[in-house]
Amino acid sequence: MDDQHKSDIYNGLFSSLTSNATEVTFFKELVANASDGFLTIDEESRIVFANPAIEAILGYTPSELIGRSKLTLIPERLRSAHERGLEAYIRTGETHIDWSGIELPALHKDGHEVPVRITLQEHSYEGQRLFTGIFRDLSERKTRQRRFEAVFNNTYQFTGLVDCDGIVIEANETALSFADLDRADVVGKPLWETYWFQLTEEATRTARLAVEHAKNGEFFREEIRIQGSNRTAVIDFSIRPITDSHGETQLLIPEGREITELKLRRQHFELLHRLFRHNLRNDLNIINGFAELLAQALTDDDLHEYATRIVETSSRLITINETAKELADITLNNDYSRTDIDVQDALEKTVAELHDQYPKSSIEVATAVNAVVPADARLRTVFIEILENAIVHTDEPRPSIEVRLVHSSADETIGITVVDSCPAIPETERVGTFNKEPVTQLKHSSGMGLWLARLIVEDYGGYLNYERRADNSGNRITIHLPVIEDV
């Protein structure tokens, strides 16, 4: 086939579409500038036309392809199948693949394979049968798909995909391996009929109820026990709806995070909490009461001193026990309701309360800025613990403390900085509170006030920061809290 004949075929392809010269030009430019590749072959699999987009997809310029066999673009292992397929179609008129769109690998000029989606169409020109394929590069989509599958199958959570009727479409490897299941064991089944939820009627009912809520656009979450291949597990189970731009639910995503060990630890913690709250507190109060009576009754100086030490030690243990109890309450209680709290107002109330308790102390609040933060009644505990710590640990007879409010634009927080004149907080007291060092038997804090403050602040989404004053005359502890709005 000479170059003139190739050019005639190319021009004829478009002129056969319409006799209008303007429309011919329009279609030529449309194909020439399309992002999809166009490739036309004849009955002998010779390429008679290729548009410029083919180069971006497969590396060949149109001139490099025209006149060559289509097998140039087909991986060697598939060439015989392509040849047989075209021959069979020309002979019988029956297709062996979906011409409306099929995903196949094409061979790039540099030798690597490119995933493409090809749409095929037969047409004719001057009695010659021609076949045009439209090539769409799927490389980016395939890459995204592989990344999604990597995340989907390598998460520790049980994750799946179900339709709005609750029929399972996909389940990740974590969920399948937990019950020693294959994908075929669950895909196509209602979620509540899958193996995981057959442990109890309650589990089955919960899964079905979750689908009902989620398909109506509601987020569902509950703890349930499910069954695996050789054990059961308590999971934090949820289903969230995926909606379209109109808010209509299209798909549902069930998830399950195993909390079996967490649940067991919580039960142990609740037992310890009851011991702290009742048994230990009652026994300490008895010891403290009898020790006070002994201190008042004993006349021997040595014995009186021993009894006084018992009073002081038991009083300190009662205080620690109360802090531990409050810490346990915060950990176990999920009923705290967040509200918008004015930082300056909450701070001034705490300062007034501490002034009544420590009349010799002076707490000056400098409020160049103010803010509203999402918090609850526990914010008072944070202020009390840090301010009282600054009052009782100074050597000065009249403690003087400065509190500054500073807005941080870097992380959108309000910083409440407490500046004192106390000795440096020992390294052991900072472990786990102002740094990330693990708490060990050799390195740990003896008090729990700062620890309690840290847990509350972190629950608010904030953090604590500690540093010595530049002149080494005291400490600076800053409470960073996320801001709703500046005041």
Walk me through this protein's architecture.
The protein is of the alpha+beta class. It folds into four domains: 138 residues, Beta-Lactamase (2-Layer Sandwich), CATH 3.30.450; 104 residues, PAS domain (Beta-Lactamase), CATH 3.30.450; 70 residues; 148 residues, Heat Shock Protein 90, CATH 3.30.565.10. It is built from 15 helices and 18 strands. The strands form four sheets. The protein has a five-stranded antiparallel beta sheet. A five-stranded antiparallel beta sheet has the order 7-6-10-9-8, with helices on both faces. A hairpin with a 5-residue loop joins strand 9 and strand 10. The longest helix is centred in the middle third of the chain and has 38 residues. InterPro entries: HATPase_C_sf, HATPase_dom, His_kinase_dom, HisK_dim/P_dom, HisK_dim/P_sf, PAS, PAS-like_dom_sf, PAS_4.
Q: TL;DR?
A:
This protein has about 475 residues and is an alpha+beta fold. Helix content is about 45%, strand content about 25%.
